[in-house]
Design a protein that fits this description.
This protein has 332 residues and is of the alpha/beta class. The strands form three sheets. It has a seven-stranded mixed sheet with strand order 2-8-7-6-5-3-4. Strands 9-10-13-12 form a four-stranded antiparallel sheet, covered by helices on one side. A two-stranded parallel ribbon has the order 1-11. The longest helix has 20 residues.
Length: 332
């Protein structure tokens, strides 16, 4: 069995290595909105009873309106990680899997652990008729590479002609809705959406799958009954029906502030997608360590020693704290 992939958010391990209380660290290692909206009131029934059909239907209807998925009714799932692990079951026998890379590492891990042949490709032109399932994260994590819906529609047609499926992970798509393929009716397209990143509520473990009913029904069967908690469904129904423009505005404000700090420090921004910003620098590993010593956690990558990913600070105090640590780095 392969070793677990190291993701962002490992504050406990960082604090153990570099000291300090977890709550005193500035966590810039994740792509999660640090300024979540107020939680709606949750009914006692949501806590007391198993999630009923009415509550799930309300969340699905709200998600269909929010994601503009047309006749496709999004399926709530307990985080998109739960369905990533089910994807190998959709690959036809003998077919290979193509993953546009580098990207979120759990995709390759899930397919490889299932014994499937995986090609981690650098460009969409590398896809062949032998690929029974293709994964594209759009915008991509960690480099924010993005493709237009027009380009992905052409890809879906190409993959579909060969009997394959195109999985488009739009985990960071809320801040760039113009990129979304959620409204596509193509039978080969499967969309994954994350709820927790944009709304800053990753702890409720909620995502949505948008696909043909035959595919969402299969996922629902594999996940089993009551896969998503009642409180999560109730929160989703409320927030997905709310005005999200203030959330987008706050993310844009925080992103602008982060970029100003990074540029003042002379760092090169390689890509950005609102909730994540990638810096490319030959000293990225040393910078990661330097920031850890100042109890600021960023995301480094074992496959690219010159990359460092920054999430958003929750406020101006966090911006100043990062700026001061970078000033020490620059002047040492």
């Amino acid at each position: 069995m392969s070793a677990p992939i190291q993701h962002g958010g490992g504050l406990a391990a960082a604090a153990e290595l570099y000291g300090g209380r977890i709550e005193d660290w500035l966590d810039l290692s994740t792509g999660i909105n640090p300024c979540p909206p107020p939680l709606p009131e949750i009914s006692p029934r949501a806590w007391h009873r198993l999630p009923d059909q009415e509550r799930e239907q309300a969340a699905r209807d709200a998600a269909r309106h929010y994601y503009r998925s047309g006749h496709r009714l999004p399926l709530p799932v307990p985080g998109t990680q739960s369905v990533i692990q089910l994807l190998p079951r959709l690959v036809r026998p003998g077919a290979r899997v193509a993953i546009l890379s580098p990207t979120y590492g759990e995709y390759a891990r899930a397919f490889q652990q299932a014994g499937l042949a995986v090609d981690q490709i650098a460009d969409l032109d590398a896809i062949t008729r032998n690929h029974g399932l293709v994964v594209v994260v759009n915008p991509n994590n960690p480099d924010a590479r993005a493709f237009s819906p027009e380009r992905l529609t052409l890809l879906a047609e190409e993959v579909g002609r060969n009997g394959g499926l195109l999985v488009i992970d739009e985990a960071f798509g809320d801040v760039l809705p113009q990129l979304s393929m959620a409204g596509s009716a193509h039978p080969s397209v499967i969309i994954f959406r994350s709820f927790g990143k944009f709304f800053g509520l990753a702890g409720i473990r909620l995502g949505f799958v948008i696909a043909d009913e035959r595919i969402t029904s299969q996922f629902a069967e594999w996940l089993g009954p009551w896969a998503v908690s009642g409180p999560a469904l109730e929160i989703a129904a409320d927030l997905l029906s709310s005005n999200v423009e203030p959330i987008r505005g706050k993310i844009a404000e925080r992103c602008h502030a982060l970029h100003a700090v990074l540029r003042d420090a002379g760092l090169e921004i390689r890509g950005e997608a609102g909730l994540l910003t990638l810096v490319e620098d030959q000293r990225a590993g040393d910078l990661h360590t330097h920031l850890c010593r100042h109890h600021i956690l960023t995301r480094k990558f074992d496959y690219r020693g010159d990359w460092l990913r920054f999430g958003l600070s929750p406020d101006q105090d966090g911006d100043r704290r990062l700026a001061e640590a970078l000033k020490v780095w620059r002047n040492r």
